[in-house]
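Researcher: Please predict.
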Amino acid sequence: MNDHPTAASLGEALHTRWLGRASEWLAVCASTNDRAAERARAGAPDGLVVATDSQSAGRGRMGRSWYSPPGENLYFSIVLRPTRPAAEIPPLTLLVGAAVANALRGLGLPPRLKWPNDVQLVDAAGRRRKVAGILTEMASAGDRVQQVVVGVGLNVNGLEFPPDLADRATSLRRELGRPLDRAAVLAGVLDALEPLYEDFERRGAAAAVAAFDDHAGLPDRWRVSAPGGSPGWLEGTALGVDADGALRLRDDHGTIHRVISGELHP
């Protein structure tokens, strides 16, 4: 398959009105989030998409690096200028995860969202493997949001992963048994995101929570490690998320905890 996506091929595949209509597709960059933030500070329009074939310094949540081999997967960031107050922005991560999940469902795949920022696929044995991650970064002045950059790494055509990822990551190609056109996959995500985001602009965090719930598979049992928190571990049943994006976890004594940040473990 000759997969050489460009801004032009993305535009031809899109069905959106405004999201992704301005775009850049770079051969390589350090980080699409950094590039998109730079473009936003320079006045880039709402809905600009910056994508690249390879990142030299891609990053995920909590400062982790993002595995970004060239020419295989999708690494892209979206510039958004929401009118909602800054306090309502954190659930945007959940909303974008839901958009990715909607797009994958359209390909015939069974997605699940893992709080707060992972998209997983469920294999034939019922195991969940990560296929995408989301990183949201906001710039604000007081309660006024200046810009939000949402970065997405989506494993599309990669077949091999480093040893530390091999047992918990997958790609669309591995699950479907065929390569995919990356521009078409990105267009599918943007097509799914535009109506969800417009609903978020109308209704705020409730729209993000509802979109997340559609794919979260809750209630579900997890352990939560909370970096620097007390207690360091919680174990129980995840019930859902609050309007600010916090996870509600009911422990075995019936107490419900609000988890603001942390990692979920089976």
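Model: The first strand starts at residue 23 and ends at 26.
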